[in-house]
Design a protein that fits this description.
The complex is a heterodimer.
Chain A lengths: L7 H11 L1 H4 L2 H6 L12 E6 L11 H7 L3 E5 L7 E6 L9 H17 L4 E6 L6 E4 L7 H8 L9 H11 L4 E6 L15 E7 L3 H4 L4 E6 L6 E6 L1 H19 L4 E6 L6 H12 L1
Parallel strand pairs in A: 3-4, 3-6, 6-7, 7-10
Antiparallel strand pairs in A: 1-2, 4-5, 8-9
Chain B lengths: L1 H23 L2 E4 L3 H7 L3 H29 L11 E5 L13 H10 L8 E7 L6 E5 L1 H4 L5 H11 L11 H5 L5 E5 L5 E3 L2 E4 L7 E9 L6 E8 L6 E3 L16 E6 L2 E6 L3 E6 L4 E6 L7 E3 L1 H9 L12 E4 L20 E5 L10 E2 L2 H4 L5 E2 L11 E2 L2 H5 L3 H18 L3 E7 L2 E6 L4 E4 L14 E3 L8 H27 L3
Parallel strand pairs in B: 2-3, 2-5, 5-7, 6-24, 15-16, 16-17, 17-20
Antiparallel strand pairs in B: 3-4, 8-9, 9-12, 10-13, 11-12, 13-14, 18-19, 21-22, 22-23
The chains are: A alpha/beta, B alpha/beta.
């Protein structure tokens, strides 16, 4: 059973004290004008006269008292305030430490749940048809852990298609995307979600390769073999390519990007992701 | 070719071992190709370059092995220069009537050779003053055509035909001449490294000067001549004034009598003469010989007294000197009073050798024996280191006599010619001090060639600079590639 990181409760508690609004139930936030923000899902959608088919509970009683006419306020669907997790289960993810991958996903799911934010998770594979899982309330990440444990890393990556498929099926407007992003077809500038969080799980090639020599590199997704000379110059050139990929992910609009390696400190990432989520 | 292949295989062995060791160390990994494919797919040239970076060291080593193997096999061979035609420019080649002489035949034969187109022509001759064999290019004179007899006459006016040493052809073979053809009437030897065009050799009736010396007993000079080629007559002439023909000496100055195998000629005065037989006229000189020596020191004065019969040559006589022990004596050869006399130093203080007998040069003693003092006990620069046993030898004066003759001949012959005058088959060279020296063809020119000898010329020198330059280039390429790859590693980093 994958458990959240030990630091998660403390992070959730600290973040709750710091941002009371985030701790409030979504229904309360939606009805309190003080929490309404321009451009967010808490915005008022419309005010119209009451009709017989409307729920009487939606009548604005204050307006009724002032105008003696019944009006109904319509708000946007609060369901869009949740976060969709999209987990890369392609063959290349086997290179990243599975336990670290699982802890990252479960911890983030638990944190969001603890802060009252709905989470639904999907694992995408070669078929690009995410399997959806909705987490329970208030920090119950067991469903997410079960989903991750049942995941096998295999097949090829097509992140773009998977994101599009998820966007069609999910009402949430925020996406937590977990992948190594070693997909040449993926363009982070073409995001279907209004707010995207990219978690790049990196297994450095230099740590696997010898200092120099001839390498036979098998692609875990395609099974193709590539023979390549490897030395300090090649390592430097490869790192430059990785850096270019990082810049590409970081510079995408409406996108947050974090690079994690198996041994990376994850608490800072949790905190930064929550900060961005709340901003 | 099999030798080359074997040599190359041996040289490539360590290179291949290193290469295979590297390949055996090849490691297999599982990793996405995404960031590799971006560069792999660019151009084939780039891929080749990247391959080269891993294997360039082995590739260049293999090329170095190839160059070394080729160089050891003689690659690249000498340049293919046109053939070199060499004419034996010796006296025997000029025997006969113009047009039918061996030298005329040589020129005609070589001109008819299929390789004559573009060929270079040379004369193999003897320098009259130094006596050294030289190979002189005469392409412009001979290749242009013309009657061989006329051509030879023109060339002979400035290039006397004396002797020809075929070993001098080495200078041609070293300069990468592959086809060297020597036309010679002395083709009695085996030619290796060049081609010999044998020509008929005509016998020459000549009287060869054997020995000319001063006759101290009868007075005057005595010359012995050997008959060669069946010569039966001998006439002695004196060279005339400059440009004039030789002339007969005055009455009573020369008497000729037959001797065994030749003639004995008595001359009343020293000087230059010409011995004319049927086919040959050979210059010779009756030298004055050693003058009366003077002595310094008790022993040398006594020894000089033995040669009091020699004529006084006005200070040109040698000086015999004793050397006090410890002095450096040979400095010695300085002329006395600038007149050209020599100094012969004697040390008579050395003891007899005990462990071994040290003998004087047999040539100095004319075959007789003379024990000398132990070496190192007397002044090392002394001409004679005598011991008590030497002093008891009755033939001791013979050594001094031979030495005096040698010194006289050396002083007379050691000059720089200021004038050369053609004289029969040879010439007279005159020095600034009035000395005269006769230069005649070697005696072998008047005799049948001795068969059985062998002349070997060195092989043409391979052009070693080409593989050397290639090796240098390959070494530079290794350095440059290593430098370039190291720089690429620095600049391509994040």
């Amino acid at each position: 059973m994958i458990l959240p990181d030990a630091a998660c409760p403390a992070i959730a508690a600290a973040f709750s004290r710091r941002a009371v609004r985030a701790f409030l139930p979504a229904s309360v936030r939606a009805r309190e004008p003080m929490f309404r923000r321009s451009g967010s899902s808490f915005d008022l959608k419309a005010i119209r006269e009451y009709q017989g088919s409307d729920d009487p509970r939606s009548i604005d009683w204050r307006l009724l008292a002032r105008t003696d006419r019944a009006y109904v306020k319509e708000f946007r669907d609060e369901a869009g305030e949740g976060v969709a997790f999209l987990l890369d289960s392609s063959g290349s993810m086997e290179l990243f430490d599975r336990a670290a991958y699982g802890s990252l996903v479960v911890s983030l799911g638990w944190l969001l749940g603890a802060l009252g934010i709905a989470v639904e998770a999907a694992v995408f594979d070669e078929a690009c048809s995410p399997r959806m899982t909705r987490l329970g309330r208030r920090g119950d990440a067991r469903a997410l852990a079960s989903l991750f444990e049942a995941t096998e890393f295999r097949g090829r990556t097509d992140i773009g298609r998977a994101v599009n498929a998820l966007r069609r099926r999910s009402a949430f407007r925020r996406l937590f995307l977990f992948s190594d992003f070693l997909d040449p077809r993926f363009d982070p500038r073409r995001q279907r979600f209004p707010d995207t969080f990219l978690f790049q799980l990196r297994a450095p090639f230099a740590a696997l390769a010898p200092l120099e020599g001839e390498l036979e590199i098998e692609d875990p997704e395609t099974g193709e073999l590539l023979r390549a000379p490897w030395d300090a110059a090649e390592a430097a050139r490869y790192e430059a390519q990785e850096e270019a990929l990082r810049r590409k992910l970081s510079s995408a609009p409406r996108t947050g990007h974090w690079t994690l390696e198996a041994e990376s400190e994850r608490e800072a990432v949790y905190w930064a992701a929550l900060e961005r989520l709340h901003a | 070719m099999p030798e080359f292949a074997g040599r190359l295989a041996l040289l490539l062995l360590p290179v291949a071992a290193l290469l295979f060791t590297g390949l055996l160390r090849r490691q297999r990994l599982r990793y996405p190709h995404a960031l590799f494919l971006g560069r792999e797919g660019r151009t084939a040239g780039l891929l080749l370059f990247r391959r080269l970076r891993l294997f360039y060291d082995a590739a260049i080593d293999a090329l170095i092995a190839l160059v070394i193997a080729a160089a050891l096999g003689g690659w690249p061979g000498p340049r293919e220069l046109p053939a070199a035609f060499v004419v034996d420019w010796s006296r025997s080649m000029a025997e006969g009537f113009p047009g039918s002489r061996a030298v005329d035949l040589a020129i005609r034969s070589l001109r008819a050779d299929p390789r004559a187109e573009g060929a270079s022509w040379y004369l193999l001759r003897q320098d009259p003053l130094s006596g050294e064999a030289v190979v002189e290019e005469a392409t412009a004179a001979i290749a242009g055509g013309g009657d061989p007899a006329s051509l030879v006459a023109v060339l002979r006016a400035t290039r006397p035909m004396l002797g020809a040493d075929p070993s001098a052809l080495a200078s041609l073979s070293r300069t990468a001449r592959r086809d060297i053809v020597l036309a010679s009437d002395s083709a009695s030897y085996e030619a290796l490294g060049f081609e010999l065009l044998p020509l008929p050799r005509s016998p020459i009736r000549a009287a060869l000067p054997a020995r000319v010396s001063r006759d101290h007993e009868a007075g005057g000079w005595t010359a012995f001549f050997a008959s060669r080629g069946g010569a039966r007559e001998l006439v002695i002439l004196e060279p005339g004034p400059e440009g004039a023909l030789p002339r007969a000496p005055g009455p009573g100055r020369v008497s000729i009598e037959e001797a065994d195998g030749g003639w004995k000629v008595r001359l009343s005065a020293p000087g230059a003469y010409l011995a004319v037989a049927e086919d040959a006229a050979l210059p010779f000189v009756a030298a004055e010989g050693p003058g009366r020596p003077s002595g310094e020191g008790p022993f040398s004065a006594a020894m000089a007294g033995l040669f009091a019969f020699l004529p006084d040559r006005g200070g040109k006589g040698a000086v015999l000197a004793d050397t006090p022990s410890g002095d450096r004596a040979r400095g010695a050869k300085a002329p006395e009073g600038g007149a050209g006399g020599a100094r012969l130093v004697t040390s008579a203080l050395a003891p007899d050798t005990e462990s071994a007998v040290r003998l004087a040069d047999p040539a100095l003693m004319r075959g007789r024996l003379l024990a000398l003092g132990a070496p190192g006990t007397g002044p090392t620069e002394a001409d004679f280191v005598l011991s008590p046993r030497s002093l008891e030898n009755r033939n001791l004066p013979l050594a001094y006599w031979t030495a005096l003759e040698r010194e006289a001949a050396r002083v007379d012959g050691d000059f720089e010619a200021v004038k050369i005058s053609s004289a029969g088959d040879g010439l007279f060279a005159y020095g600034s001090g009035g000395q005269v020296r006769a230069v005649a063809p070697p005696a072998s020119e008047y005799e049948e060639a001795t068969p059985g000898s062998r002349v070997v010329l060195p092989s043409p020198e391979a052009r070693r600079w080409i593989p050397a330059a290639l090796l240098a280039l390959l070494a530079l390429a290794k350095l440059a590639l290593a430098h370039a790859f190291a720089r690429a590693a620095k600049t391509s980093g994040p």
